[in-house]
Amino acid sequence: MPIRRELRPLYPPHWRMLSATVRFARAGGRCERCGRPHGMVLRCLPDGRWFDERSGTWRDGRNRPARWPDLIDTPRIRTTRPVLAAAHLNHDPRDNRLRNLQALCQRCHLLHDREHHRAQRRLTYRRRWALGDLFLGRYL
Questions:
Q1: What is the residue-level pLDDT of the chain in tens, covering all 140 positions?
Q2: Is 41:80 a contact under the CB 8 Å cutoff?
Q3: Domain of life, per the record (predicted)?
Q4: What is the extent of the structural domain holding 92?
Q5: Is residue 26 in a domain?
Q6: Residue 118 domain-assigned?
Q7: Which DSSP helix (H) or strand (E) runs through 112?
Q8: Number of folded domains in the chain?
């Protein structure tokens, strides 16, 4: 996941090497929460279940064996290619200790940062509301 330009000074110069160490050396190229492998095309369902070709079973969002999809679930199966990212568990990009970093796929990373994204969305809406009041009159 690319780092936003305004946040780059918060990351150390060796971030790429540190991230690769967490994602591939420690985690073995798999998400540390759900177990999805990096870069492989997977069949998955919206509820987080995915098919693990290596073991021939369906897994849930916590990498535990899950029930097979029934006829209602089958049309909702889609394919995805997970990409691992090194996530900061305490949401502070300056804290780069290995125990604070975890290799997460996009789905798990978004779930981990859910509250932060909600707060940012709230701030964006409030800022737009304020700009509308300031420059455009009543905000409709």
A1: 678 899 899 999 999 999 999 999 999 999 999 999 999 999 999 999 999 999 999 999 999 999 999 999 999 999 999 999 999 999 999 999 999 999 999 999 999 999 999 999 999 989 888 887 777 766 55
A2: yes
A3: Bacteria
A4: 5-113
A5: yes
A6: no
A7: helix 106-112
A8: 1
